[in-house]
Each structure stands twice: as C-alpha cells, then as structure tokens.
Write a structure and sequence with these properties.
The chain has 190 residues and is an alpha+beta fold. It has six helices and seven strands, in the order αααβαββαββββα. Strands 1-4-2-3 form a four-stranded antiparallel beta sheet, with helices on both faces. It has a three-stranded antiparallel beta sheet with strand order 5-6-7, covered by helices on one side. Strand 6 and strand 7 form a beta hairpin.
Length: 190
C-alpha cells in the first residue's frame, strides 16, 4: 500500500462512491475523502433537475431579458409524459438525469419517438426515475463556465474559467485551447 501525506489535497473532476473506493484502495485516508453523506449530496446536485431549478431561478431574476429561452426543461416520470411532451414540440432533446459530457442524450427531430427512443426512455426511467426533456434550441456556440467547490469550511465556490468546445448533434467533437480572454472575445461576437 502506498503511504500518502495527509496534508495532500485531492482534486477530482467529479466525486462518486467508485472514486472514493478506488482512492481508499490506493492508500488515501478516509479523512481526506468526502463522507458518504457528502457524496449523496453531491449526487443530488449532479441530477439534471438541479440545472432545471437554476434555469427557473435565473428566469425569475431576468424575466424581461430578450435572450432567455422561454421553454423550461421538464422532468418526466412516465413514458406517457414523454409522449405528451414530444407531441407538443417538434425538436426535443431527451436527457438522462445523471449523465454528462454529451452522454445520455437523445434527439428527436420529427416530434415522434422512434422504437429505439421509446426503449431508451423506458430504461432510463426504470434506472434513474425520470427523463429530462427540453425543446431543442438553435446552438450558436457551445461553451461552459467551470467552477470548483473549494475545500474550505464554507465550501466556497470559485470560478475557474471558460471552456469553448464544439459538438455535432450533441456529440463532443473538440475544444479550443485558449485563454479566458480569447474565449470571451469569441463569445462577444454573438
């Protein structure tokens, strides 16, 4: 077993029970890792309904802003709800509640679900309890704002930087490696 200095800080992209177990097996102290309760809170924050709640909050603060999207994402718990949503909207993006980096996405174009889409929705609802659905928007430029929760007693959230990337039909295809100021220059053009 490796011996690690207890003053070492551990920085991971995203915490979960698998990473915690792996680090414990590598010799890290349980005191250096999040508790099971903290991991449960992190998992809840990673659910896409948290993004939905943030979306609703921002919409209420900026209700008169012409750049906001009107269609709020929906969390759908039954297959019938998915059918209703896709019947009302032509271009829909379906998302698994716990997924990221372009995974767990389904695009419907015609307002109808394919046999494959139905099977996917059934599986996601059975495993994760719901499917998130939103009206597909015209994408001008993909980008992300990156934040880190600092290991302080207050769990301070710090802005880390921007990420400018490209996708094709929701699939990641590349990143632009550039400074934040260069990325802001690109975004400012829009």
């Amino acid at each position: 077993d490796a011996n690690y200095d207890s003053s070492q800080s551990i920085i991971v992209w995203g915490w979960n029970h698998v990473i915690k177990k792996r680090l414990l097996n590598e010799g890290f102290s349980v005191n250096q890792l999040p508790t099971d309760r903290e991991l449960s809170c992190i998992r809840e924050l990673q659910h896409r309904h948290t993004a939905k709640q943030c979306f609703e909050y921002v919409n209420t603060l900026l209700s008169n802003n012409k750049y906001l999207v009107d269609d709020i994402p929906a969390e759908l718990y039954k297959l019938d709800d998915v059918f209703s949503f896709t019947d009302k909207h032509t271009n829909v993006m379906l998302k698994a509640p716990w997924s990221g980096s372009g995974k767990g996405l389904r695009w419907t174009v015609t307002g109808m679900l394919s046999h494959s889409d139905v099977g996917w929705c059934k599986q996601i609802i059975a495993k994760q309890g719901s499917v998130m659905a939103e009206v597909r928007q015209s994408v001008v430029q993909d980008f992300a704002m990156l934040f880190q929760v600092l290991p302080t007693p207050q769990h301070t959230i710090a802005f880390v930087g921007y990420s400018l990337f490209s996708t094709h039909n929701g699939t990641y295809s590349g990143n632009l490696l550039a400074s934040d100021s260069m990325i802001l220059d690109v975004l400012a053009k829009y």
